[in-house]
């Protein structure tokens, strides 16, 4: 059916074009021979093709454009005729004798254009006559194109101020009156198109009408270009007349398009001064009109205007632009009950952007907008509309981008309430946006109250809002989120130690609600932040001894002990052990022996009860030995207990090489250069001998199981420890012991079953070079090394 109609239309269009071209041909012949009578005859017949009602607007436009081109040639002929002495007045009357009204009016408009140009009559009189004559065509499509032609031929001949066709004192008003009348009539015709034809074709007709909208809109463009339209005329005449037509036509397509045209065509300063009138029309529009897009466009233009120059801002304050826009948006939302949430939030987002440009210092305005948004969202629950959530993210992001300071956003009481309406996924995205803003602008959150507000704001990342969603989250995304939170914790800082203590309490309260999956990410930065405060308090206590201090290192260590214990629920014993050792070292720096001992005790318990993996045990024991070596706060008894345990753990490692290395590392626990009371050569020697025995056992085991001796690297490593302590002055280590160990290494390396290892050979060669270097050095050191034979 549709295909048949399309084919028929093509035939009718083809027939129309053929008829038009034939008559145009004869018209050209008449023009060439200066035969005015025949020219008018054939031009009228040519224009009769435009009387058709069979064509759709799109096809009619094709026919019209061909006729338009021919009429331009005819206009040139009329102009030449007047130059040759033909009376334009007589010509104007002569064309009115055409038989059909439509060709007659096209010819009249064409001659009228030449008539105005001749200046034999005032432009306003000719235009008034033409506009009245055009009322004779009431068919929507034919009337629209006729008036479009009138607008086209007259636009450069309006009696505007400064124009060559300028008339008396009210000349601009005459021009405006002509354009407004033409606009009004065209809009009526355009709106009437919806009633042409059966109801089933309504969708098709609406599409056709949308294609013709520019014919009507061009009138507003012409109005915007008239020089004589100043602010007063725009306020008193142009805008009220245009809005009256827009409101009264009660047509969705027309109202939306024309409102958008008004906003785009006229200057921003005019909109600002007539804001009340323009906004007053919005609630009167049809409920189905997409008013949110219209208002958003208006606010975007005004925002850009405000941003263009600081000089225009006083005008915004003077006309109370914010109050008017705010009231108008409220009325529109109230009038359109069925407006989707997405539409309302879009309006509030646009108003917020406007406010941030015009009133960046008025946080109460920003909070007022957010409050209105909360009111609209109340009772809706979590939003599942992706368009609405996207707009809410834009709404919440705008203050962050403008102020570049989360402190400002935290002052907005309604900010967190808006976030509550985001679904869990989007809530996390918004929380990430907030954290990234803090990182990017290096914002320091310096009070416990702000930290509380911030953590409440980003609670979607701090704890599980919905337990069911936890498993659905991608592991990489989760890690990225929690790493962001970890970085945020490091940004929470103030020079006031008492306030910092409150911040630490606040952070701890929130991170402990995060569940076992989050604790490994959040506890370490919290612990290091707390340890920073410990060191600051320690330095303050040294400077102001005797004064009462609100927070003490001991208090913080108690908090840390309880917090690290929470990692047992994960479980993350290796991480907890590292943190216990860090705390023990910090307690040592504060000379808090009982506290340091307790942290070590907890580390040892974790090692014994929780850490069973052999690699993890090796790493842990070396961390324990390294930390214990740096401790100076322990008394003899406590130190002996801890070192004894450490050496015991070392000798119980699964692999012999690991045992050997851990045992010789323990030798450092008994010889500390900076502490004379911690130098025990006997126990150093005991550790090294035990390490040597283990290395021998490892060699024998390798020989028994693989048929070849194992690597001699352990012997070389022990040799290096011998040389280290020999230099440090451990009397129990003699030249003979070193010499025998060198010979042992050489013997093992030259054995039949030994597999050559370049790295081991290089290590031993480097050790011998070091001995030679010390011999060549001269002085006391050289005297010590000279007895050694390499």
Protein traits:
about 0% strand, about 70% helix, mainly alpha, 39 helices, about 800 residues
Structure report:
It is found in: Cytoplasm; Endosome membrane; Golgi apparatus, trans-Golgi network membrane; Prevacuolar compartment membrane. It comes from Abeliophyllum distichum. One of its GO terms (biological process) is protein transport. 72% of the residues lie in helices and 0% in strands. It has 790 residues and is mainly alpha-helical. Helix 6 runs parallel beside helix 8 and helix 28 (519-543) packs parallel to helix 30 (573-589). The longest helix has 31 residues, at 2-32.
Explain briefly what this protein structure is.
This is Vacuolar protein sorting-associated protein 35. This protein is an all-alpha fold.
**Helical segment tally?**
39
Quantity of strands, as a count? 0
Shape verdict: elongated
Query: Which percent band covers the strand fraction?
Result: under 5%
Summing up helix and strand content along with how strands pair, one would put the structural category as mainly alpha
What is the first-to-last residue Cα distance?
108 Å
The helicity comes to over 70%
**Biggest sheet character:** none
Uncertain residue segments: none
Mean of all residue-level pLDDT scores: 90
Could you tell me the radius of gyration in angstroms? 46 Å
GO biological process, one term: protein transport
Keywords: Cytoplasm, Endosome, Golgi apparatus, Membrane, Protein transport, Transport
Function: Plays a role in vesicular protein sorting.
Membrane topology: Peripheral membrane protein
């Amino acid at each position: 059916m549709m295909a048949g109609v399309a084919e028929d239309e093509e035939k009718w269009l083809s027939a129309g074009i053929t008829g038009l071209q034939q008559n145009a041909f004869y018209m050209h012949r008449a023009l060439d021979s200066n035969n005015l009578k025949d020219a008018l005859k054939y031009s009228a017949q040519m224009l009769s093709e435009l009387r058709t009602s069979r064509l759709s607007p799109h096809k009619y436009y094709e026919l019209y454009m061909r006729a338009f081109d021919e009429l331009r040639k005819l206009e040139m002929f009329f102009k030449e005729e007047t130059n040759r002495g033909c009376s334009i007045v007589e010509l104007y009357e002569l064309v009115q004798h055409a038989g059909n009204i439509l060709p007659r009016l096209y010819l009249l408009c064409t001659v009228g254009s030449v008539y105005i140009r001749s200046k034999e009559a005032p432009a306003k009189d000719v235009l008034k006559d033409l506009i009245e004559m055009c009322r004779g065509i009431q068919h929507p499509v034919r009337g629209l194109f006729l008036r479009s032609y009138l607008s086209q031929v007259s636009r450069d001949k309006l009696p505007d101020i400064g124009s060559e066709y300028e008339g008396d004192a009210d000349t601009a008003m005459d021009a405006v009156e002509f354009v407004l009348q033409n606009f009004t009539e065209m809009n009526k015709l355009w709106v009437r198109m919806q009633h042409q034809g059966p109801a089933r074709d309504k969708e098709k007709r609406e599409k056709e009408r949308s294609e013709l909208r520019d014919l009507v809109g061009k009138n507003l463009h012409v109005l915007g270009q008239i020089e004589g339209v100043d602010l007063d005329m725009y306020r008193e005449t142009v805008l009220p007349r245009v809005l009256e037509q827009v409101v009264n036509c009660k047509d969705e397509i027309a109202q939306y398009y024309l409102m958008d045209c008004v906003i785009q065509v006229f200057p921003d300063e005019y909109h600002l001064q007539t804001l009340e009138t323009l906004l007053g029309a919005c609630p009167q529009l049809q409920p189905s009109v997409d008013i949110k897009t219209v208002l958003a466009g208006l606010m975007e233009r005004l925002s850009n205007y405000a941003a263009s120059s600081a000089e225009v801002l006083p005008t915004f304050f003077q006309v109370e632009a914010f109050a008017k826009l705010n009231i108008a948006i409220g009325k529109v939302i109230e009038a359109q009950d069925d407006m989707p949430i997405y539409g309302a939030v879009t309006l509030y987002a646009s108003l917020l952007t406007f406010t941030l440009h015009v009133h960046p210092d008025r946080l109460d305005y920003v909070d007022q907008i957010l409050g209105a948004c909360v009111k609209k969202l109340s009772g809706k629950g979590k939003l599942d509309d992706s368009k609405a959530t996207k707009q809410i993210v834009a709404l919440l992001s705008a203050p962050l981008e403008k102020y570049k300071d989360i402190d400002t956003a935290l002052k907005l009481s309604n900010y967190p309430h808006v976030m509550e309406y985001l679904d869990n996924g989007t809530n996390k995205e918004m929380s990430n946006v907030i954290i990234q803003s803090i990182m990017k602008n290096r914002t320091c959150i310096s009070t416990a109250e702000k930290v509380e507000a911030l953590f409440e704001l980003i609670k979607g990342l701090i704890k599980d809002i919905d337990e069911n969603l936890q498993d659905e989250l991608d592991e990489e995304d989760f890690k990225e989120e929690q790493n962001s939170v970890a970085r945020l914790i490091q940004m929470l800082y103030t020079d006031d130690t008492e306030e910092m203590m409150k911040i630490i309490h606040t952070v701890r309260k929130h991170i402990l609600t995060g569940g076992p999956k989050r604790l490994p990410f959040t506890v370490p930065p919290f612990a290091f932040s707390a340890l920073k405060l410990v060191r600051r308090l320690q330095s303050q206590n040294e400077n102001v001894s005797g004064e009462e201090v609100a927070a003490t290192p001991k208090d913080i260590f108690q908090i840390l002990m309880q917090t690290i214990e929470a990692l047992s629920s994960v479980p993350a014993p290796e991480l907890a052990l590292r943190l216990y050792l860090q705390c023990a070292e910090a307690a040592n720096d504060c000379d808090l022996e009982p506290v340091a001992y307790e942290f070590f005790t907890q580390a040892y318990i974790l090692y014994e009860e929780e850490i069973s993996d052999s690699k993890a045990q090796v790493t842990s024991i070396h961390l324990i030995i390294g930390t214990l070596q740096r401790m100076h706060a322990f008394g003899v008894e406590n130190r002996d207990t801890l070192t004894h345990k450490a050496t015991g753990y070392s000798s119980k490692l699964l692999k012999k090489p690991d045992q050997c290395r851990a045992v010789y590392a323990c030798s450092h626990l008994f010889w500390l250069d900076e502490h004379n009371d911690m130098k025990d050569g006997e126990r150093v020697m005991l550790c090294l001998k035990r390490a040597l025995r283990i290395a021998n056992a490892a060699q024998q085991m390798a020989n028994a199981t693989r048929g070849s001796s194992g690597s001699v690297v352990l012997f070389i490593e022990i040799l290096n420890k011998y040389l280290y302590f020999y230099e440090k002055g451990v009397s129990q280590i003699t030249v003979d012991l070193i010499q025998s160990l060198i010979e042992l290494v050489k013997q093992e390396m030259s054995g039949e079953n030994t597999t050559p290892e370049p790295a081991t050979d290089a290590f031993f060669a480097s050790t011998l070079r070091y001995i030679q270097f010390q011999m060549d050095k001269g002085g006391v050191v050289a005297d010590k090394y000279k007895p050694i034979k390499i």
